Amino acid sequence: MIARIYLSLCIGITAFSLLAASAGAATYYVDYSAGSDSNAGTSTGVAWQHCPGDANASGTASSAVLNPGDTVYFKGGVSYVLVGSGITVAPGTAGSPVTYDGNSTGTWGTGMAVITDNNSANSITAFRSSSSFIANASFKGFRFTNIGGGPLPPDLGSAIPAKPGYGISALEMTNVFVSGCYFGQIGYYQQLAPIGNSSLLGDAIECNAGCSGLTITNCEFTQIRDPIQLSGGNVVNTTIAKCNFHDQMEWAITVLHTTTSYRSNLYIFSCTFSNTDQYYTGTNAGGLWTAYGDGPHENAIMMFGAEGCGGNCALDRPIGDTNVFIYNNYFVNTLGHPGGSTCFWFQDGTSADIYNNVFNNATANNEISVSEPATNTAFHVGIYNNTIYGGAPHINVGGTVAYGMGWLVGSNFDVKVVVENNLVSSLDIGNNNYFDILAQCTTNTLTTFTNNVLFNYNFYKSDQVMEGGVMVFGLWSQAGTYITPPSSPAIFGWDRNSLTGSPLFVQASTNNIAANNLALQSNSPAIGAGINLTSLNLPGLNADCTGVGRPATGNWVVGAYQTTTNASNGSGGNSGGNGGNGAGISAFVPGGGGSDITNGLLVCYRFNQINGTTATDSSGNGQTGSLTGSATWTTGLVGTRAISFPSNDGLSSSADGVGASSVSYVGDWTITFWVYNNSFPGVLNYAATTAAATGVFVGPRSWGFYDGSALLSGSSPLSTQASYFIAVSKSAGTNYQLYLNGSANNAGTLANVNISSLTIGNRGGSFLGMNGSIEDFRIFSRVLATNEIATLAANGPDDVAASIPLPPTGLRVVSVGP
Predict the structure, then answer these.
(1) What does the pLDDT read at residue 586?
(2) How far is C-alpha 737 from the geometric centre of its chain's CA atoms?
């Protein structure tokens, strides 16, 4: 139904007239098997053989200059063979990246475009920088494989030299987006002779002097010594999310600092680490390493001082880390061998919050290890609501003289390690006395250490009791000799509210690790045994690892899983308002959604930051948004993040918003987002405007799309204090379809509205704004199918329902409201 409402408001409107940075952008095509560098390269029929920037290019391909906003498509299923120095990446500008696309949408060729050198070169880089920088570039849908390395030569009695390869490499990266790529078999990766430790060398993505605005999502990494290496400089505004790391690697993610560098706004979440610990075992440990010498020590996520600092990089760091969040990740070892150093290794004053992670027999040593804090840097580590099942010690805090551990922090320094709400359960393998927690320091730092470390509200499996409990407190002399602690760890005030016993997992067995389900049975004593950590306001912590909301008040469940019967946190609640209003969505149970829908994205604002005045565009198109007015970050539907517009009045005092610097598109489109209304003020509440005086509105009396003179309204009004998933599509120019919570709603004909500007939260010009919050806002340059809309709704904001790959049940949406 269309309600034609003609608005004649005598209020001055200053619309955003944003010029399109992509105007005039060119599109080129590369087909290594059938293209020719003498072609124009402007369509699939006249594709080049080589990409501009490749020293082997000739003719038109050699002389072509890629400009900001340009895109180069590589034909899917075709191997692009690197010879010599690889491809030099052309620089884009903020908001207008140069895009290299390996058939991410599947529209040209079959599968991914392959980037390879067929193992022929030594130290070749597929995409490399010019003048040490890669800036404003996007890489989508490539398969990087067989670069360097290759089949092993005969064993002549000694380790062979390395034959390294690299995927995407630069000294510094700024606003670089890598999505939907495969990186595998780069450099030697094997674990048998004639390989030695020094033979293993290769990176998928490396940035050796700092990165800002680096985003790596939905990628797969395997059989590479160091898949992601960020070292030597500041690492800021960087996200690594929804990636799969598996098999034969040393450090899956490495972030190294120098004496003057720091990390800020670093997010690592919803990644899987499977069987990455196949090197660090040695023949004497009965492991899989049968090459020369001992294999390298393996850590899934490694953060410490850069090599060459002598183990004391923390001592002169003037700036501490801020906003480092590692959450909703899954670690598993199904091979049944003893191997791996740690899943997390934090050293030299690294600050981070580590929570909602699941460790399923992940390593034989430590799951989380924290040591060597800085002396003049604020040093905070929070370890919350993790579920750990496997080898031990699970959590290792502190160190010994042998590891350079002095814990040389004075009482005046801002230092704290807090370990709360963790469920840790040791395995008894081969009669080894495994235990849950190891805390250790030296005699001269005992007071400082115990005053700055807190263990509480944890749940321990109690089948192994050592030195008075499930915790071992290691006290070392300055000479590096272990001595008996002077008293039980309880004397320090540790674990006063912690419990021991059987956690009653749904399924936990060493016989079939892959089938384990570490969610809790309904009668688990860990339910309600945790402290409520809502006040920490960490992104994602107010929901469990599967997206089920934790209660805003009352005790939490210990560990990474929340039971589905507990009240959801935040914006779900009761739907209030008029009877018959649309029902909101409050909680998700994982497993039955689907792969995230990303094909054809123009912009994607997940709004998963916690501070700052800009919003990151996850589409890879560089359309950074700017916060205006009192717009601020807030907690989303199920512990995700959202952007809030708290002071908009639905009339002329509606300055709260997010404006994109340049968005323009002509054609059919789909807009999707999650919305939560605090109230319905004023005349009209815009969620977003797509052109002057047009856009999506969410209240007060109805919701839908306005074309400048007429409204297409939904079948029933929304409620305040409830969350909704809304989608609007435009097809054939004038046909509009509304969707509510994944289901088709009303449809009708309106004027042909193209996208010439974008403001989220109001209509532009500080006018007709909504009062509430929005999360996971997307615009697609195509009409999404009904099943794709349903998948986005089922996945939840920021694809939260797919965040952990081993869910206990199929996905379903729990609706609340009238």
Answers:
(1) 53
(2) 32
User: What is the Cα–Cα distance from 372 to 443, expressed in whole angstroms?
Assistant: 15
Give the separation between CA 433 and CA 470, rounded to whole angstroms.
Answer: 10
Cα Rg of the chain, angstroms: 27
Q: Other C-beta atoms within 10 Å of 228: how many?
A: 28
Angle subtended at Cα 71 by Cα 66 and Cα 76, rounded to the nearest 5 degrees: 125
pTM over 0.85: no
How would you classify residue 132: left for phi > 0, otherwise alpha for psi between -120 and 50, otherwise beta? left
Q: What is the DSSP letter of 507?
A: E
DSSP-derived 3-state class of residue 559: coil
pLDDT at 146 over 90: yes
What per-residue confidence (pLDDT) applies to 307?
A: 46
- End-to-end Cα spacing for the chain: 23
Q: Counting beta carbons within 10 angstroms of the beta carbon of residue 58, is it exposed (0 to 12), middle (13 to 18) or buried (19 or more)? A: middle
Please confirm whether the linkage preceding 489 is cis (ω < 30° from 0).
no
pLDDT band at 543 (very low <50, low <70, confident <90, very high): confident
By three-state DSSP, how is residue 80 classified?
Answer: strand
CA dihedral over 804, 808, 811, 815, signed as positive or negative: negative
What is the CB neighbour count within 10 angstroms for residue 710? Answer: 17
Nearest to 136 by CA among 86, 89, 171: 89
Residues 376-407: b if buried by 16+ CB within 10 A, e if exposed: ebbbbbbbbbbbbbbbbbbbbbbbbbebebbb
Q: Which two tokens stand for residue 785?
A: 């199918």
Tokens read off for 437:
């927690």
